[in-house]
Amino acid sequence: MNHLKDVPLNKAYLLLNHGPSTIVTSEHEGVANVMAAAWVMPLDFDPPKLMLVLDRNTWSRHLVEGSAAFVIQLPTRQQAELTLAVGSSNGGEGNKFEQLDIRTSRAKQVEAPIVDGCVAYLECKVISEPHNQEKYDLFIAEVVAAYADERAFSNGRWHFPSDELRTIHYQAGGAFFATGEAFQVSRG
Amino acid sequence: MNHLKDVPLNKAYLLLNHGPSTIVTSEHEGVANVMAAAWVMPLDFDPPKLMLVLDRNTWSRHLVEGSAAFVIQLPTRQQAELTLAVGSSNGGEGNKFEQLDIRTSRAKQVEAPIVDGCVAYLECKVISEPHNQEKYDLFIAEVVAAYADERAFSNGRWHFPSDELRTIHYQAGGAFFATGEAFQVSRG
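^ inputs. structure came back:
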């Protein structure tokens, strides 16, 4: 069953606004990789942009520099073990998808695999900023496609139907928080 | 009672790693302001750097450009109403501290007020990057002092003792999530 539904691009920032941890996939010349990334956030609304900090010592960095594209996906609490596993190795040229038995599909607008079972996907094209990339390991990208699991995100809001589908927030050393209780505040 | 305890600078990123919403304070030539900011994240470990997206139409932007400094603080669930209130107005030259009856203290390393009752503070000096500031409203800064409420953060980990002291994650339209359940994942 596929619960993925397109998210309008001018609402894509809402997928990341609450600061969840992410998984990054990328591919260049037929070689793909996957890694965890906690340091991802929105940069602009429309057209949507986001930022990703991508260490120069990772294989994914090499792929993203080659392809100028990547996909940010939001793993669920069920996928926390997977998130830690893909994050704990820089991978080299080894195939983490095979080693960890990760099921994937294909992205729509960029050439890259996506990890099945995540609750949101943001396909991104890098905006070339050599100074930021070299000095800060910082990549700025435009979001060119966004879609989310409609059980967890619809009408521009997250509303997690179960603990298993909650997004997660990485602390360190294998410690995570689940996205917690929703509450509403009114403007004085 | 003051529960604030210094956080070693090389651990300061752990205050922000889980993606909480923040409040930004700044001051220039004796004029101070306060606003909410969801788009803040770490950029480097040691010396610690972070990034803040600061819209050009805000009064705080004017102050930060003048002083090259600001303070990021993490409001608690108890302060969600305050967070929404300071975020919903760009302030102009009005004094939001007085209008909203916000109690403040002084930062240690930079010239700015800090909002009392937050669970973490990161005092920052801007690293001048005119291209990023002009093109993307993006400010990169070095964290020069960090301290946190030791009831909620100690030994490099968040461990919220009560719902009231939990950090918060902004969605939109007054909707927040509290930082949720902590869980530990082991490396395969």
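The mean pLDDT of chain B is 95. Residues 100 and 140 of chain B are 29 Å apart (CA to CA).
thumbs up if we can close this ticket
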